[in-house]
Amino acid sequence: MVGRRACGMMVGMSENHDPIRLLAVRETPLSLDEVHAAVGDDAAGGTTLFVGTVRDHDGGKPVAALEYSAHPTAARELRRVAEQVCADFPVRALAAVHRTGRLEIGDVAVIVAVSCAHRGEAFAASRRLIDDLKHQVPIWKHQVFTDGEEEWVGAGSC
Fold first, then answer.
1. How does it assemble (predicted)?
2. Which of 36, 92, 149, 158 has its CA 20 to 30 A from that of 119?
3. Total domain count for the chain?
4. pTM of the predicted model, to two decimals?
């Protein structure tokens, strides 16, 4: 990791450069435009944007809706995950937002975006960001199936 500093800071970057541009766990609808704008960086040659949506099935069973809830520490854990991704990859800009509350089929549940100098780095950092968010940030998914059955899925098991 020659030339790297904590949180992905590269030699030549200003000491004030914070690649973490937007982090949120919120009930309001998520905006692709907001997230994309947050990771804009003139030095980035690659930007990835992952959008997780509510699908109409899980485990072969039809889903009617989902409800996400978050532990009060979710925002803090999301920041910890983002900082680790920035420390492990040469991130120019990073954003991650996750929705809570009731979501219908097709609604956007999560968006992550990463900008790096090169596309390979952006893809790898983005993959780590979404995987670690899903496994480490305490956000739980309550699935409601069309047959009336319900299931809870939590951080570390989704």
1. Heterotetramer of 2 MoaD subunits and 2 MoaE subunits. Also stable as homodimer. The enzyme changes between these two forms during catalysis.
2. 158
3. 1
4. 0.88
pLDDT in tens, 103-137: 999 999 999 999 999 999 999 999 999 999 999 99
Range of the domain at 66: 6-153
Give the chain's residues under pLDDT 50: 1-6, 8-12, 157-158
Please tell me the number of Cα atoms within 13 Å of 6 on its side-chain side.
4
What end-to-end distance do the CA atoms of the chain give, in Å? 31
Residue 89 lies in a domain: yes
CA 133, CA 13: separation in Å to the nearest integer? 27
How many whole angstroms separate alpha carbon 114 and alpha carbon 58? 28
Number of H helices, E strands in the chain: 3, 9
The CATH number of whichever domain residue 91 belongs to comes to 3.90.1170.40
